[in-house]
Amino acid sequence: MQTANVEIDIIDYMKNPLSPRELKEILSKLGIPAIDLVRKNEAIWKENYKGKSLSEEEIIEAMAAFPKLIERPIVVTADTAVVGRPPEKIKTLI
User: Which of 31, 41, 63, 71 is buried most deeply by CB count within 10 Å?
Assistant: First the structure.
């Protein structure tokens, strides 16, 4: 897909989960800690992780194991990324 002269690849990470390495790359581009990318209202989070003292690595592993925990959509370019909520944030990359 291409929009505003920017090439966009859509990755459905619910069907093709991201690896911990890929998540680390995205977090680096986002410039945020892993906990800020977690959907904390998901049942998986509440039942298994909420209230626990987790390392950055443990949070990344949880998101890799349960992609539903990852905030979405995430728009990534070669150098940066944004979480597309609200959608207007995506325009900062174009």
Answer: 63
Residue owning tokens 């966009």:
8
Amino acid at site 89: K
pLDDT tens track for 23-77 = 999 999 999 999 999 999 999 999 999 999 999 999 999 999 999 999 988 888 8
| Helices vs. strands in the chain: H and E counts, helices first | 3, 4
User: Token pair for residue 2?
Assistant: 């291409």
Which domains, ranges and CATH numbers included, belong to the chain?
2-93 (3.40.30.10)
Residue with tokens 């728009």: 75
Is 90 in contact with 84 (CB distance < 8 Å)?
A: yes
